[in-house]
Amino acid sequence: xxxxxxxxxxxxxxxxxxxxxxxxxxxxxxxxxxxxxxxxxxxxxxxxxxxxxxxxxxxxxxxxxxxxxxxxxxxxxxxxxxxxxxxxxxxxxxxxxxxxxxxxxxxxxxxxxxxxxxxxxxxxxxxxxxxxxxxxxxxxxxxxxxxxxxxxxxxxxxxxxxxxxxxxxxxxxxxxxxxxxxxxxxxxxxxxxxxxxxxxxxxxxxxxxxxxxxxxxxxxxxxxxxxxxxxxxxxxxxxxxxxxxxxxxxxxxxxxxxxxxxxxxxxxxxxxxxxxxxxxxxxxxxxxxxxxxxxxxxxxxxxxxxxxxxxxxxxxxxxxxxxxxxxxxxxxxxxxxxxxxxxxxxxxxxxxxxxxxxx
Length: 359
Fold this sequence. Notes:
Blueprint: H1 9-35, H2 54-102, H3 118-167, H4 173-202, E1 208-211, H5 212-229, E2 233-238, E3 242-245, H6 247-263, E4 271-279, E5 282-289, H7 324-334, E6 338-343, E7 349-356
Helix pairs in contact: 1-2, 2-3, 3-4, 4-7, 5-6, 6-7
């Protein structure tokens, strides 16, 4: 919003310095008058008959004092202007960096040198903010590009199927409807996943008491038929792990982790272990599964949207949309928790979720 023009911070500091110096000089002259001139006799003989009287001293002292005050004021203005400029120079660099950031240049850094003072702390905090903002914007840009690509794929397939049906009226409509249904279901799943991910990022949900052990049992019961079809042993161990948050989102978090562990497992004879416990003031959920060995450099990318990892893309009905662990990470972050992914030496993945516990 527009504001009325006013004095700059440098000019205000300059006037403050000069005013303070002038007041100090005036107080010094007042002290000299009170404790020196007031004791000089005001008669023709002066002090002991040999020194000038008060009248002569006043006539000599005050003109010199006025000149000294004028010089002191000029010195205060000049010195204050220089000192204020030197003091506010780091603030100018921070302002320029803020303007560049406002124009879209988030890669610029101040990198202020010198000792650790208030301006250095402000500069470092601003650099850290720019670094996080640049990373967040880049992540959002990748997410938007990937989301557009993922959403375009089922739409393009649907259009192709419809074009084929229009050009070939003799084609089996039952097969066409089934394929359209599958493509449409995938698009709906992707849209719902995107909405859930957005909801988790916003963190606008009502908190209530939740036990992670109960959610683990519910998720395991839901996914047990899938595990049995794949001949995978699914076990739930541990005890109560109370926390606070959205029961719906936390259930989706646990379900995604268990489903991910079942789907990305050995072709047959695999295992999935879900363990919950309360560790001091923290509630812990661990999901461990067998599977192929994962390169350590691949693990950090698994929580990024649409990243399925090498040899992790499935072609069956549980292929997913590459948002499972991204949604988990978003929900954990919204609940002030931490998410750790560690590849197992024998193959598979160990996922550990830590959330603030409740009594």
